[in-house]
Automatic annotation (TrEMBL), chains A, B:
It comes from Halteria grandinella. GO terms for biological process: amino acid biosynthetic process; branched-chain amino acid biosynthetic process. This is Branched-chain-amino-acid aminotransferase. Its cofactor is pyridoxal 5'-phosphate. The lineage of its organism: Eukaryota, Sar, Alveolata, Ciliophora, Intramacronucleata. GO terms for molecular function: branched-chain-amino-acid transaminase activity.
Length: 382, 382
């Protein structure tokens, strides 16, 4: 048995190690959907485009099949499909932009597809070459370019997903799976300016744990959290959960969490928890850390901190601002959190709905995504 | 908002609190599949019967809809279906039997549907009345009775499943979902006698965590474990993982784990970890604890124990036998486990492939499921 597998035990020898863009085929659909009006108010994920990318894998049929661009349409899934029972599934989220000079750009897709491979390893899915995936995605984006709204702060949300395609009622290794990418045109996350969120700390639930899988973008990290977010909403009217591991602050809802404060040493510091295996290695998180370090205006730290430190800093008025970071909103300002029935307020500019650093980070990210600032290693032109 | 929800925040007022068997409708399919031959060799989950039970829920359309028995056929799922991305899904497993006196019986379905409600709460799904679900299932079993093989140790595996039916690219509360039950005729788990399994202890991965959701039968507890079971198989040829939480023994593969040993105090003891939130409250586990306590022949304990205790007991030849417990196999004897590259052997009767207590427990369970032993509170005749 051992000889069939490589060192990581995740790729099958004798089957294709990755699909390739050179094998991509295009299956034209008979009719295209009408495009939205120029002033359409987009809701996040409310519309899908005409086409999707689909790549099937079958261990008994040569591994990865030819990548295919085809109509975005429903799948037929057997009620015994293993994804529906055992959550053998992962996803990614990134965006395509029309820049100010009318070019089409993907923002750091290489990071997403590297992370997707790490999810694949967790689920026993085969890996692929992230460069080949990026090239296939570029072809899809070229075909669907007209779906990207040509308006400020609009973009095309890109959702890669992998699911198991075995129909079986027992948990065992994956033989067939499918990777697909769907696209959805989106407007600004906050169409009428920032709306700062309220967070709920539940000391009775833990999202992820050491030596678990909280650092993977797999379905199993999401569905089970719905109970706690609902509890917070019902009890305190909060929007998201500030996830704690015992007292350690980890993530906010489905976003990484940043605090800008004067720390106990009296230094101005932007802080977010480190990648210890319980934190999703967010692409926006990584971009923000890089950009703010380059400013050289305050300390930027990735280190563990406790909710008690944050509560103390709030009480002592040392917190300047706090925000979540993720692909959908880029930054999402936080106005308060509830811990043990007590609400702690975090300063937010009343008019703008966010602090000055949060606003500045958003602008830096928008300038990169709009092509006004150059950073070639992050900007993948289509 | 608050007034719309009850104390647990999980049921919607003004919508139906449960579906009801009295609303059940039957949609006949035009053609039935051919039934397997009398000597058919069943593989677990390899066949599905003609019909399934399906109950839809829509918060914007009165909540629970009428239960429907209809053809078991593929679903159409949009690529943006939230179950495929966020693992908003749970399942159950139980069996229907033809007894020695030709009656049809479900074994403890009430326990499964109570546990399913606890999974529903975790996922923000609406709850239902377990009695109504059991009555609907009975109707399905009546229609499909001819699919239950009339042969020793054969049964009809019953797989209830709930999935989210919202199409959305962001994680938010469930508005539409579907509960369904499919059936699959199965033979004995070990058709040619017990095949004892080898277990792999990985000190680098943790399946479930205190204050997590390891006690729920939700998809997210299964897919992410595939990496570790594959690692063990490739490195050591093991069949399943013996999951540890740091040093504490928790579960074996997808089964509860029992050890029968002479403990450090010199007592004969059957031991399994307690329901501390990291352990699935198995129905077979519960049945075995009840039956063995009634024997009054040895101590029966639910208390935490460490892998080092088990290693020491193995070395000192104090382990009589060990087994996994679950619906599919009932009991699954363990012949060894690997910890830190060392293999620890567990005694197994060479001829039978299992220890005496394991064999005895299997027989007690088979007698109950065959109706030879009466225990009315566990035996639900259809």
């Amino acid at each position: 048995m051992l000889g069939l597998f490589n060192r990581t035990g995740m790729r099958f020898m004798g089957t294709k190690q990755s699909f390739h863009k050179s094998d991509l085929t295009f299956q034209e659909r008979p009719n295209l959907k009408p495009k939205p009006a120029a002033d359409h108010q987009y809701t996040f994920g409310g519309l899908s485009t005409d086409y999707m990318l689909e790549i099937n894998y079958d261990v008994h049929n040569g591994g990865w099949q030819r990548p295919l661009i085809k109509a975005n349409e429903p799948f037929e899934l057997d009620p015994a499909n293993a994804t529906l029972h055992y959550s053998i599934e992962c996803f990614e989220g990134l965006k395509a932009y029309i820049t100010h000079d009318d070019r089409t750009m993907l923002f750091r897709p290489d990071k997403n597809f590297e992370r997707m491979n790490s999810s694949h390893r967790q689920l026993g899915f085969p890996e692929f070459n992230p460069k080949e995936m990026t090239e296939c995605l570029k072809e899809l984006i070229k075909i669907e370019k007209e779906w990207i709204p040509r308006r400020p702060m609009h973009s095309l949300y890109v959702r890669p997903t992998s699911i198991c395609m075995d129909d079986r009622l027992s948990l065992s290794k994956v033989e067939k799976m499918k990777t697909f990418i769907i696209l959805s045109p989106v407007g600004p996350y906050y169409p009428r300016g920032f709306v700062p969120v309220k967070l709920y700390c539940d000391t009775n639930t833990v999202r992820a744990w050491p030596q678990g899988f909280g650092d993977k973008k797999i379905g199993g990290n999401y569905g089970p959290t719905l109970r706690t977010s609902r509890m917070g909403n019902l009890k305190f009217g909060t929007d998201q959960v500030l996830w704690l591991l015992h007292d350690w602050v980890t993530e906010a809802g489905t976003m990484n969490f940043f605090v800008f404060w004067k720390n106990e040493e009296g230094e101005d510091e932007l802080i977010t928890p480190p990648l210890d295996g319980t934190i999703l290695p967010g692409v926006t998180r990584d971009s923000i850390l890089t950009l703010t370090k380059e400013l050289r205006q305050f300390k930027v730290s990735t280190r563990p901190f406790k909710i008690q430190e944050l509560m103390k800093a709030c009480t002592e008025k040392r917190v300047y601002e706090a925000f979540g970071a993720g692909t959908a909103a880029i930054v999402s300002p936080v106005q308060s959190f509830v811990y043990d029935n007590v609400t702690y307020e975090i300063p937010v500019d009343k008019e703008k709905g966010a602090g000055k650093l949060t606003q500045r980070i958003l602008q830096m990210m928008l300038d990169l995504q709009d092509g006004k600032t150059n950073r070639p290693e992050w900007q993948f032109y289509v």
